[in-house]
Amino acid sequence: MRFLLLAALAASLTASASAQHDHHAAASSGEPAAIVETFTVSGLRVDEANPPSGSGVGRAGLRYGDGGYVSIVHGKPYARGREIWGGLVGFGQPWVAGAHRATELFTTVPLLIGGTRIEPGAYSLFVTPRHNAWALHVNRTLGMHLSDEYDAANNVGTVYASPTVLQTPVEALTWSFRRDGAFVTLAWGNLSTSFSLARADV
Question: 3-class DSSP state for residue 19?
Fold first, then answer.
């Protein structure tokens, strides 16, 4: 009897894990460049009403049918009741789009971000928020701390998008890819901004 109960429990857990995977995996058309998976990793479980002090580490990514891969790794600060836009993050100033070290983008395939071609490789991401339009800077220098070492001369490209006011504020800064891979989004506090994304022709 005990064996039967354990077997039933194992089957239930397997089905649950499979369903969770399917929830996060995008439908594949069979094409090599089709998106087969997008994911967001937010670290340990956090009580949104009582977030921890300091910042965590976040990660987001997407994977193509032929093994092509795109990943964003970033510091993950929490709002903790503070004013973010125009407070912690100044308008009109380049910002690491996370916490501490500059946010990093890694891609094994060429991309079009906001229409700007980005070749395979590793880059830093900075954002200059403004009231009506945000600029996303893709920079070839890695390992920069805050914006102290940021040099616009090393930008590979800069793209623009308008922010959206969120009805439900986001406590912890989050980067994410849309399920179809058409946008990459930065959300924190009461604002989010989505930059168009596409895989470029090789």
Answer: helix
